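Recap for those who missed Tuesday's class. We walked through two folding examples back to back. For each one, the amino acid string is listed first and its predicted structure tokens come directly after. Nothing is annotated here on purpose, so try labeling regions yourself before you check the end of the notes.
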Amino acid sequence: MRRFYRMMLLMLLCAALLFSGCSGEGSGQLTLYGVNTGKSDCLLFLLPKGETLLVDTGLKDTYDRLEAVLELAGVKEIDHLVITHGHKDHIGGLKKLAKDYAIGTIYTNAYDTATYNDAERETILEACRQWRQISPPLRGTDGLELGGVHLDFLAPDRPYSDEEDDNNNSLVLRLVYGEVAFLLMGDATTVIEEVLLSPGEEMTSLLPAAFLKVGRHGKEDASLPAFIAAVHPAQAYLTGNREEDEDSPSPAVLARLEEAGAQTYSNEGEHLAVRWQSDGASLSPGEYVYE
């Protein structure tokens, strides 16, 4: 009988250990994958407390690259998905993603009436458990705490029409883990950069970041010299591919970043993704990941 109780106790202990390993506590480390979806955006964050944050989904035709990275990273569910705006090179993979993975909350720009059509709004509604429409700026205590990181939405603060360049409806994100900041510009152009640099704005102090996801796939209608100087990134990621667009990324933008001391990475080449890791005190150099 004593042997039976000992066996039962051992089984309960094993079950408790197994359960605790699946509780979502995470490793205390942040991992970022810049998925190589060509000239399109798709960034996967594995957050320190075990949650997942995906920023954009790439193109419909490049979903297999995102799927491969999700499998490589052992992702079972998308806890948070930010869609910066509704252009196909940012939202294109959503339908396929939603068929394969449960999605918790999708975040979009409440001001953006230009880049989404009715079918895309319906897809968003059906794809997730909760759809949250964000009205930037949300920063500081108004920002979000997600899985051990802080997330601010810096821009835009109003709608932008086609005539003004509807790329400026892109949500601009600032993610902070400990002492390490990530600034993600989506497809925001110099128009938004100038707003963030305005002397009357309180945003300037929020611009410095170790990691910059460069706006507009590295094209010349973003990345003002003054903006790069204000961010002063150690590492910069450009979601461009000159085989698809000879101006993306622009040689001038690449030179500007390198002159500022940033190590640059892009979606050119046969790699599956670029991977960065942070313990909250520092950010590792990017590592190219191959299938």
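Example two. Treat it independently of the first, because the proteins are unrelated.
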Amino acid sequence: MVPDGWLTLHRNYGSTTPEYPYAREAEQEKYHMDNYRQYILEQLKICPQIRDTNIYLKLIEAFPDLQVKRATFYRYMKALREQHGYQHTSKRKISPREVSQPGYEAQADFGQYKLKDMYGRIVRVYFFCMVLSYSRMKFVCFSPDPFTTETAIKAHNYAFQYFGGRPQTILYDLDRVYVISENLGNIIFVPAFEKYVKRIGYSVSLCRPRDPQSKGKVEEVIGYVKQSFLEGRVYTGIDSLNSAALAWLDREGNGRIHTVTRNVSGKIKYSKNGHIKYSSFGH
């Protein structure tokens, strides 16, 4: 039986006609790399933007006995990306007017705001926002302290529970809560966040530097939360603020007709149309 995906990979490794020794060698190298195929796909699923060089270094670290020429590895990666649709970040084009498919993408970011309490004292609050790119359904939760990786993960859980599921991919800033370092696609995630992404089963996309328009939807939500919910509000405690935020989301944030989609964001998740489904929340 011909192995799954062989036709795609075959084009990148030349003819298998016996009179070409290099073709037989390439075929052997391909089957050798297939031993690491699942590991590579897991890395691509977490972050499709990751550079092939970074995956190569991860492979060497995870499998010290691996012996493969870099040229062979890069040919294999090229074929694997084409087969599974994982494009390099340089080929990924983002436009403010890009229309996402239902259930595909969400955008997430942090904000902060200064409120006054009942005694007139200034209190700074921090908040996490997530918006579903297709429906524009929003979620926000507040914290009295800057978000850490641990509290950001909790905020993700709250958001997925509120939405009734999770999208396939989430777009983030290069925030230290999620990313230790990034250099031209060499991405090192915070270990706890990487473990969480693997467990829940979605992909991470990172906003390109100096390109805020690529996550314009969540930027709009942050401004909307500040102007429509926080402005003029008196701080009476973080629990009451979060309770008021949920009521505001149901009534105002997701309860009105969106000016772009012309739909009520909060009602799209209840649609019986099979195309308006979000992946179930993993445990």
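Answers for example two:
The two ends are 36 Å apart (CA to CA).
Strands lie at 105-117, 122-132, 138-143, 169-172, 179-183, 186-189, 203-206, 234-235.
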